[in-house]
Specification:
Helix content is about 35%, strand content about 15%. It has about 190 residues and is of the alpha/beta class.
């Protein structure tokens, strides 16, 4: 089966909670990725229950007529924090804090987070043998799943772009392979209308 992970669109910065809505740009990105994936023959759509992931999935499921299924196991590691600062903003404004976070600091148990994500995505894979499934999720989720597939230590090692697409082939025998990472061509095209 093909597992397609889609990072959420650009959210607004939030100092009150870690579950912000998409920004205007993020909604545009969500429309663009919906069009990008429209002809991929996706059989099912899943999402993190966090607002930014669900809002990113909405144009895709509306266009494809899919029922959106939520899975707590693909929520981001920061879901319990008191604020949300986009990673590129954190990197620009407080490089030391960004570096500590990327290396598993700030109370993030990256191996435990990876176990949660891998368990959740394996459940999604098992539920759709031979299918093609889109999962709308987060940068941390994509990082630890990719590290798992590549048999690397659990870590946050690359920056998935907003609404970037990441494809994996997942065989019934347990083999997991990377097909592509960080597809973003849909963001270079003219704005789309849905």
């Amino acid at each position: 089966m093909e597992l397609i992970l889609v990072r959420h669109g650009l959210p607004v910065r939030s100092d009150g909670h870690a579950d912000p809505e998409l920004s205007e740009e993020g909604h545009d990105q969500a429309r663009r990725v919906a069009l990008w994936l429209a002809d991929d023959g996706v059989d099912a759509a899943w999402s993190s229950p966090m607002r930014r992931a669900v809002q990113t999935a909405e144009p895709f499921v509306a266009r494809g007529g899919h029922a959106l299924q939520l899975h707590e196991g693909v929520a981001e590691f920061d879901r319990e924090s008191g604020a949300y600062v986009p990673m590129e903003v954190l990197k620009r404004e407080d490089y030391a804090a960004w570096k500590a976070l990327a290396e598993g600091g700030h109370g993030v148990d990256v191996p435990a987070f990876q176990d949660q994500v891998v368990g959740a995505l394996e459940e999604v894979i098992a539920a759709h043998p031979g299918g093609r499934v889109a999962v709308f999720c987060h940068g941390g989720v994509i990082n630890v799943w990719t590290a798992h597939v590549l048999k690397m230590e659990p870590r946050l090692f690359f920056e998935p772009g907003y609404t970037s697409v990441h494809r994996f082939m997942c065989a019934r025998g347990g083999q997991r392979n990377v097909v592509s990472l960080n597809e973003r061509a849909h963001l270079r095209e003219a704005p789309a209308a849905i």
